[in-house]
Design brief:
Blueprint lengths: L3 E6 L6 H18 L4 E6 L2 H11 L5 E5 L16 H6 L4 E4 L2 H6 L4 H13 L3 E6 L3 H6 L2 H13 L4 H4 L3 E4 L13 H19 L1 H4 L4 E4 L7 H5 L6 E4 L6 H8 L3
Parallel strand pairs: 1-2, 1-8, 2-3, 3-4, 4-5, 5-6, 6-7, 7-8
Bound molecules: 1,3-dihydroxyacetonephosphate (13P).
The site of 1,3-dihydroxyacetonephosphate has 14 residues, from strand 8.
């Protein structure tokens, strides 16, 4: 069975103290209230990772994630963070290729392919983001566009490595806008992506890949999104900054 994952992407929010308070509250409620059906991942800013790692250490429900990492192992890369550093503070997951980073930092599919390799080589699970702009959606080429993002960054992997990837489909037009993709729009894309994985790696492999939805997900719309057969969880921005909302989204399973 596929892993159900709800990851909170805090983006550039919360001072250290605020972040620690949020992480403690999430860990407390989640450990009490969420069942074994789903896991939570807290993707905090880099400066929070070490301390949040101590809060969630030992939990089998709440895990630690970073929002980005370098493809380089170390050296003269001012401002960057390596996989090794993430490992050293207990990080398990790393978001790669978020649309905000693709847009503001010009991250390319090829560069992201190298980051995926570096993450896997260091036993970090990539939460690999993909998604189309409104322009692409309106042109009707969204499936090809997103499929190509994944092909160029992931299809060099062999099946064993590919099985370790978590995909997050986040239509850019739904991020932070309050406009959620309808459950049918999200399901259609997730199914198309899974069919593409089946064509490349076989149905058995495709059936093991968790595909998360992201974009204005909240407690009110999570149950319907998560009831779709190919939606295996969420990558949550704004609503992950409130412990109650975040845990309620996880409990939608
Ligand atoms: P929102 O949930 O705030 O729309 O953000 C989604 C997102 O970008 C998560 O990575």
């Amino acid at each position: 069975m596929r892993k159900k994952i709800v990851a909170g992407n805090w983006k550039m929010n919360k001072t250290l103290d605020e972040g620690l308070a949020l992480a403690s509250e999430v860990a407390n409620i989640a450990n009490d209230e969420i069942t074994d059906d789903a896991i939570a991942v807290l993707c905090t800013p880099f400066i929070h990772l070490s301390a949040v790692g101590k809060i969630v250490a030992g939990s089998n429900k709440v895990f630690l994630g970073a929002q980005n990492m370098s493809e380089h192992a170390g050296g003269a890369y001012t401002g960057d963070i390596s996989a090794d550093m993430l490992n050293s503070v207990g990080v398990n997951y790393v978001i790669l290729g978020h649309s905000e980073r693709r847009e503001y930092h010009n991250e390319s599919n090829a560069e992201l392919a190298s980051r995926v390799d570096a993450a896997l080589a260091n036993e970090l699970t990539p939460i690999f983001c993909c998604g189309e702009s409104l322009e692409v959606r309106e042109a009707g080429t969204h499936v090809d566009f997103v499929s190509n993002q994944l092909k160029e960054s992931l299809f060099h992997l062999d099946a064993e490595a590919f099985k370790k990837i978590v995909i997050a489909y986040e239509p850019i037009w739904a991020i932070g806008t309050g406009v959620t993709a309808s459950s049918a729009q999200a399901q259609d894309m997730h199914k198309a992506l899974r069919d593409g994985f089946a064509a490349q790696y076989g149905q058995d492999v495709a059936d093991e890949i968790s595909i998360l939805y992201g974009g204005s997900a909240k407690p009110a719309n999570a149950p319907e999104l998560f009831s779709q057969p190919d939606i295996d969880g969420g990558l949550i921005g704004g609503a992950s900054l409130k412990a109650r909302d975040f845990v309620d989204i996880i409990k939608s399973y």
